[in-house]
Amino acid sequence: MAITYTLNHHVNAPPEAVFAAMLDIEGFGAWMENFVRVERLDEGEVGPGSSWREVRNIMGREGAEVFEIRALEPGRRLELYVDGKKGTTGRGEYHYVYELEEREGGTDVRLLGGMEMGAVFNLFARLMLPMFKKMVRKDLESLARHVERKEQT
């Protein structure tokens, strides 16, 4: 059974600016915490099917995961998928659905997250969920600061 969670964050910038930053793969290092490097695994315009390997420093060690864009609606919705077998974790599937809605001169970002680790590992994942959500929330906050700074210049 999948483990799901929802996070919400308001960004003081228009949806188009938030969405552009989310798709600026080569620019992730400007805002992601513990960022080491990113490598595009395809060429051309970023869209459904695009993928990249993202490497971060996690608890003092480098950890990599391969992300794939499953669907997108410019300025409104972005769906990402991670096959854990292709990354450092070596297992599980992760789903991230970002929904953007213009509100009060900015953007409400809603993240619907899910992970499926397998029977035994789901128990461990449930125990780690608060820490995982905290890391993902920090990403949303960092993204917001980055986009808001760019909008002020």
Structure description:
This protein has 153 residues and is an alpha+beta fold. Helix content is 28%, strand content 42%. It has a seven-stranded antiparallel β-sheet, with helices on one face. The N and C termini lie far apart (46 Å).
Please give a handful of descriptors for the protein shown.
globular; single chain; alpha+beta; 28% helix; 153 residues; 7-stranded antiparallel sheet
Rg (C-alpha, Å): 15 Å
How are strands sequenced across the largest beta sheet?
1-7-6-5-4-3-2
Rounded average pLDDT: 93
Helicity range of the residues? 25-40%
Low-confidence regions: none
Termini separation comes to: 46 Å
Strand content is 35-45%
Give the H and E element order. EHEEEEEEH
Major beta sheet, specifics? 7 strands, antiparallel
Number of helices in the DSSP assignment: 2
Number of strands: 7
| Backbone shape | globular
Based on secondary structure, the structural category is: alpha+beta
Oligomer: single chain
